């Protein structure tokens, strides 16, 4: 099963339309959390939003997860050890208020298990790849320093 | 509940900490920072029912969500926070955003709490708008990107990514 999730705030029709188009030729279910987007889709099982429990269940069941380049999606993929395909929202397509998801995508491109679809045309190849590397739950090299700084600040105040 | 200057670092008295973040990436980042504050008396707040329970974050409260385009919702959120502050009287407020967290940070500063803003790791090139506003109200004001910290004047200590 392919799970697609794009956050709760903004629709991402460019991504959903392409997943719907590809779904016709894929022998795999696609469950999509689409946000505020009521466009009918032939090949997607859509939900506007998901409860935390439903999100958890779908993320666990998925073979691969497709998402916008949001930090929540990336941290979830790490926690659940799933391969994640991210496609950044673009200001040019009015998909977000700015291009910060492009910056995020550039920054996470080297992270294990995070696969960036820079454009719609990259999706087909990534979805049909025989084995995408899963993400790993390590919190990053500097997370402990950040936690120590917070701890010291609170303890010494 | 004060610590004498000679008290050893490890024996810091428990503080009432309000840890607040919107659902999604903001909340997940706050959860990854938990080792920095769970040895204190922590109360959590987020915007989505069931989310705190999924992360075993307790006690937790549901804060009304808001954004800068909905002033009435923001006011409702602020009133909820004022009531929560009266009951909790936090010594420390820590947030990763977004607007509900910023409002809590401002209330914290006004009521004498010590305040921590950790800007979302999503903001890899410039600080978030909320993060820029937080500057005046944060005692510890962090970006998770060294370049953004340098350009904005925020501190950098590390990143959860």
Explain this structure to me?
- The complex is a heterodimer of chains A (157) and B (161).
- Chain A has 157 residues and is of the alpha/beta class.
- Chain A has helices spanning 13-23, 52-61, 71-80, 100-108, 123-128, 143-155, and strands at residues 2-5, 30-33, 45-47, 64-68, 84-87, 114-116.
- A six-stranded parallel sheet of chain A has the order 3-2-1-4-5-6, with helices on both faces.
- Chain A is globular and about 60 Å long.
- Chain B contains six helices and seven strands.
- In chain B, strands 3-2-1-4-5-6-7 form a seven-stranded parallel sheet.
- In chain B, α2 links the parallel β2 and β3 (60-62).
- Chain B starts with 15 loop residues before the first strand and ends in a 5-residue tail after the last strand.
- Residues 1-8 of chain B have low confidence and may be disordered.
- The A-B interface holds A 7-8, 51-53, 56, 70-76, 79, 100-101, 103-104, 106-108, 111, 139-140, 142-157 and B 9, 12, 15, 17, 23-29, 32-33, 35-37, 39-40, 48-51, 53-54, 91-92, 94, 114, 116, 118, 120-126, 139-140, 142, 144, 155, 157-161.
Pair with the biggest interface:
A-B, 40 and 47 residues
Average pLDDT over all residues of chain A: 96
Helical content class of chain B: 25-40%
Helical residues, percent of chain A: 25-40%
Largest sheet of chain B: 7 strands, parallel
Order of helices and strands of chain B: EHEHEHEHEHEHE
Instruction: Give the count of helical stretches of chain B.
Output: 6
Strand content of chain B: 15-25%
- Secondary structure category of chain A: alpha/beta
Uncertain parts of chain B? 1-8
List keywords for this structure.
heterodimer; A: 157 residues; alpha/beta; six-stranded parallel beta sheet; 6 helices; 6 strands; 38% helix; globular; B: 161 residues; 34% helix; disordered N terminus
List the helices and strands and how they pair.
The complex is a heterodimer of chains A (157) and B (161).
Chain A: E1 2-5, H1 13-23, E2 30-33, E3 45-47, H2 52-61, E4 64-68, H3 71-80, E5 84-87, H4 100-108, E6 114-116, H5 123-128, H6 143-155
Parallel strand pairs in A: 1-2, 1-4, 2-3, 4-5, 5-6
Chain B: E1 16-21, H1 25-32, E2 41-46, H2 51-54, E3 60-62, H3 71-88, E4 92-97, H4 99-110, E5 114-118, H5 129-134, E6 140-143, H6 146-152, E7 155-156
Parallel strand pairs in B: 1-2, 1-4, 2-3, 4-5, 5-6, 6-7
